[in-house]
Amino acid sequence: MAYQPKCRYVAGIDPDIDKSGLVIYDRDERRWLCLTIPVAELREKILGFSALDIEIIVEAGWLVGGFHHMAGMPANLRSRGVNAQLAYVGEACTRVGQNFGVGKTIVALLQAEGYEVKLVTPPKPPRRKPGEPKVKMKWDAEKFMHLTGLDYGHNEEIRDACRTMYPFK
Prior knowledge:
Layout: E1 9-14, E2 20-26, E3 31-37, H1 39-47, E4 54-59, H2 82-112, E5 117-120, H3 141-148, H4 156-165
Parallel strand pairs: 1-4, 4-5
Antiparallel strand pairs: 1-2, 2-3
């Protein structure tokens, strides 16, 4: 069964330590608002909407088990000493944990204000057979512009926020 929109607006949020991606789509006017803003400003922006008039969708990477962001490891990491390897992995874990904490904080703040928040996990690439190319799940600027009709590709935080809410548009 196809998804049935509940209200006029839908917001997608990609939580981040410094600035989170926020995309709000107006279903009636078919207009987009795309922002990269700190948590306090994000909260204030959402508070400008009635809880009955906006669906909020948050990318909740903390719901995915396992270690995150290993794909971005430097190619020469294995050739470094054990201490350098551990330091790199420790920093990566810290950044991921901080992002998860920001996401959980955003959810708690909005729920405390009476908003219903839906958590969605980042999309996983399909299993591939040996020799098959890797499928990118992140949207590039071209895909973002094609799907939204906007003429600017924005940054990764905004594209991720949009990808998060797009199935609910």
